[in-house]
Amino acid sequence: MSSLNNLNTPALRDGIADPPEAPPEPLAPQGEYNPQIPEAPLSLPDSAPTASHGPAELLSPAGGPEAAYAAFHYGANAIYLGLRKFSARAEAENFTLDEVDEITSYAHSRTPRRRVFVTVNTVVLQNELSELVYALGALSDIGVDALLVQDLGVYRIVRRYFPNLTMHASTQLAVHNCAGAKALKELGFSRVVLARELTLDEVREITATCGIETEVFIHGALCYAYSGLCLFSSQTLGRSGNRGRCAYSCRDQFQVSGAPATLRDGTPTKRDPNLGFAFSMKDLALPDHLPAFQDAGLSCFKIEGRKKSPLYVATVTDFYRKLLDGTLPPDSRAAHESDIKAVFSRPWTRLFVQSHKDKEVADRDTVGHRGSPIGIVDAVVPQASRQPPLLRFTTERSLERHDGLQIDIPGLGRPFGFAVDQLQIVKKGARSENVFEAPAGALVEVAMPQDHPPIPPQATIYCSSSQDVKRRYRHSHPKPGLFHTRRAMDLLVQLTPERLTAIASLANPALSATLSIDGPFAPAKDPAKTEAAIRGAFEKLGNTHLSLGQFSLSNPQALFVPISQLNQLRRDLTAKLEQTLETSFGDRVATICREILPQPRSPQTVPARDLNWSIKVDRIAFLDDLESTDWQNIDEAVIEIARDQSTVLCNKLEALAQKIGREHIRLALPVLTRKWEEKDIAQKVSRLRAAGWTKWEASNLSSWTFLGLPMLRAENGKDVAANLATDWSLYVVNRAAALQMLDLGASRFALSPEDGLDNMRSLLAEFGAQATVIVHQDTPLFLAESCAYANLIGGCPGKANCRFEKMEMVSNYGEKVTAFDYRCRTITLNKTAFCLTPYLKELAAAGATSVRADFVYRDYSSQQVRDIWRLLHTGKNVPGGHAANFARGML
Predict the structure, then answer these.
(1) CA 319 → CA 278, 337, 644, 851, distances in Å?
(2) For 335-374, what is each residue's pLDDT tens digit?
(3) Can you list the alpha helix ranges (DSSP code H) found in 211-328?
(4) Euclidean distance between CA atoms 268 and 38, whole angstroms
(5) Cα(first)–Cα(last) distance of the chain, in Å?
(6) Average pLDDT, the chain
(7) Which of 64, 68, 114, 59 is nearest to 87 (CA)?
(8) Calpha distance 564→566 (Å, rounded)
(9) Residue 890 phi, psi dihedral angles, 5° rounding
(10) Which burial class, exposed, middle or buried, applies to 115 when counting CB atoms under 10 A from its CB (0-12, 13-18, 19+)?
């Protein structure tokens, strides 16, 4: 089976990726499959659990085949993995299609049966659709257990052409409430991976009321922003997280200005807010919350880590497997946690599982892998010239040569780390003894590099790599090629004195191949052995993707066939059948591609001066200073309804309607609506609809539920009681996604500000009349529940005592951003606005008819909005404006 190739991707920033803080290390030993190395106990059923009953499955990450075998060995019910394309972890090792086939066959052969989920959880560009179809067809034939999907174009293709594939909604879809989960249920998804930011109460309600399986992360690295809504590295570096190429900008250190150093009561903040890792999150760890999640009826506990080593997968899977099974003695839990931390760990956090008001969730002073605490600095002992200084401490766990140690150094930003090359045990009244290994409780001295930084007294020392852990967490794997998917081949053999004819057939797809060999064939001495010989020959199907199904022999004259001829017939017949199967697969893919790929067409163009302009605001007062001339030829004013008080909003909308006409006003729902915000949104929607407002914009799948609109209008024939548009956060970067938005009842959709001109040209040529191009916007780089200011000052001071409104920030790489507080949610914007007015002619020539300017998130004055609007309307660039990926395209 052919495989997808690796993409050539630019290198990550030094020290920012997750990892390279701790490079992957192989487990020992890694020999062939050995049944003498027992797998960890696994008591959970192999069938898919439901949202309402049954134990939850444990889902482990598999960045590559070794991690997959480690996960299964230590008790994972299922793994999730990515292809070398279309994966939100593009820099992981990932899998070829042949490797997916092998690991799926292996998983399905286990008792109980294990499952394999494949992440196709990126947005897909126009020129990738044919490769996507090939991959989906191969995954369908392999029989993987589910796909994790972000792009609704992928959803459309799977639903129409590969309906046997089960779909799970990736966390990249940013589903964070009941409304979004209900929309997914109606679309036909079987499971939703909920946003990490949810509380236990929110998870419990979604699980109990939405009729869809729920999956939550319980351990691993955290994104600062809501997954799927982070555009930081895309807008600043051209590396899109929605394409699996995140540059981990959240792990940067930022210089800050404008952050208050005192609280409202005059008390100084706990820490200086002017420098730190404001967005660098701790690692999620929820071992204490498993019982509550189980009681809530969750279907799946998920471990993050497709870029982590097999050793990490082994230790974390083993820990949570034993917790779920109740086989972890309380007195050994600390040791298991220490093993995990020695492999890879930042400080742990429960995030918001208990309350969305918990704010101490970031690692402000140090970035990267820390390790497991092993001791406290006792002294740094100098030695004779040219001899390395010695670090003296009492070790809390066994230590040996080639282990790794780290120490947090204030102001350094990253831990100072070094390998244990020289180890001594210090004994009272005796000379220090050089040893290979020191037991827990020993006073030791370890040689440090000569150029070590100043070591703070009483600093914590961490074990960041342990040879003992590597030895103890072994796993087995099978011989390569031993497992692969097989199709049942029915065989009919007809034998006459003149000819032997074999007909091999498959049921799905219905294919057959026929071959004959000429005789003469003589009577058999033992006719019973002839049938056994023919059956036996065709049971030896070796490396083919076939297995013998039903066997039928017609040999009325009891003839004999030499085994050498049978073996050759088997080889030739199976080769012919597999070639027929491959040809059929290619024809099927080609047929699908002809239906879904964009066809060359000439766009319907208008002069740039005749483009239809819209304006979007999230505070209706932003429009107060626009004069009658500013409203000339306006297509739409789009008003987001979340921020303004309901009565003020209704009154101002009526006044605006008097100016520009009700038909030119569209109301937008926010991209994020958490449980405590739902009542306000629902009341506004009800009041506005009662007042006759019928034009709406959706920015999240939850919008359909809030508006009471049916999903899949084109398929169920229901009328849509509103004129619907969709915003950029429901990504449309391919034809299939565009068609899906239209089927969801949208009359128009906004294209993504991440997209580039070449990809956009292809979309606009076909969908110019339905597409809106955003040409000015303060694109949100981060939309986050974690307060950046609280992260910097060491804790939340409480809403009543907090003075944080906004702060200017500059990363180590020179990226200038502004972080705003919005109801204790942090919204981070580029210092300057995204602006495409220099490209208006190119957009018009490509087929664009509608363009929009957004004034959302930033604290504009109505005069600023008016002045910028006038610049844009005349085709002028906003001072300092940037075009993000528009010219270079989205990576």
Answers:
(1) 30, 8, 48, 53
(2) 999 999 999 999 999 999 999 888 779 999 999 999 999 9
(3) 232-237, 290-296, 310-325
(4) 57
(5) 27
(6) 91
(7) 64
(8) 5
(9) -90, 125
(10) buried
